[in-house]
Design goal:
The chain has seven helices and 14 strands. With about 250 residues, it is an alpha+beta fold.
Length: about 250
């Protein structure tokens, strides 16, 4: 395990520990321009994570959901201090602390700490994916009709709804947790397909590494390689990916 991955895990765990001290308590909730919500805990947790990383890598650059930053051609860290803040403020345990390291436009380290579920998933490019330190792999289900599909927030699917409905009809079952837990399930073989149309760099980058190191595949909606300026993604166990892309992009 590289020093960078060790620090990413440490930072995510410290962020999760800090956020947990406010979980279940009444908080003042504010809204951003895109109608997403945040609290002081989001910003403070992001600072805890940044401080932890800077302690080991003083020259680190960041792109955080709360404090911003500009992606560059070198290396930088992404942070989503509380992914699924609406769950956090409603006392729903499906939220997570996300950290990733991107180099030359490609995620190379990803960590997701879901403290209420006692799950930490992480991966480093070329070194496999792990859940609570045990190696994980995606499922080997090879037929769409047997697959479990998980979709993100449906309110963002307006333009994709006809395509999504076609895929829903083809799958065995569908769930919509609207949380980073979606990717925990996929990477550990408990689901086969995850659709997201809204996620930004700090939402997707950690899971691109994790899912692919678990043997799966992550692309944009056209089936092209996911890029850091893409919104959302299609993630699968890999076996079903081409068929999923074909169904979603059928004219």
């Amino acid at each position: 395990m590289s020093n960078e991955l060790k620090v990413a895990i440490e930072a995510a765990k410290k962020g999760a520990k800090y956020a947990l001290t406010f979980y279940g308590k009444e908080l003042t909730v504010d809204k951003k321009d895109d109608n997403t919500v945040f609290t002081k805990v989001d910003k403070e947790t992001e600072e805890v994570i940044k401080k932890t990383i800077l302690n080991k890598f003083p020259d680190a650059k960041f792109v955080g959901e709360e404090t911003g930053g500009i992606p560059n051609k070198g290396a930088f860290w992404t942070i989503d201090p509380i992914d699924a803040t609406r769950h956090f403020i409603r006392n729903i345990p499906l939220w997570s602390v996300l950290v990733s390291l991107i180099a030359d436009g490609r995620p190379i380290i990803g960590v997701s700490d879901a403290p209420c579920l006692n799950e930490v998933v992480y991966a480093e490019k070329g070194k496999g994916a792990f859940l609570n330190d045990k190696k994980i792999t995606v499922s080997n289900i090879a037929k769409i009709k047997d697959s479990l599909l998980i979709v993100g927030a449906l309110r963002f699917f307006k333009d994709k709804m006809p395509a999504t409905l076609r895929l829903i009809e083809a799958c065995a079952s569908i769930r919509s947790y609207v949380s980073p837990y979606d990717f925990h399930l996929l990477a550990s073989g408990r689901s086969e397909i995850t659709l997201d149309v809204y996620g930004k760099i700090w939402d997707i980058a950690p899971f691109k590494v994790i899912v692919e190191e678990a043997g799966g595949r992550v692309t944009n909606w056209e089936g092209k390689p996911w890029a850091i300026d893409d919104r959302g993604c299609i993630a699968t166990n890999g076996i079903l990916h081409e068929e999923v892309i074909k169904i979603l992009n059928k004219k």
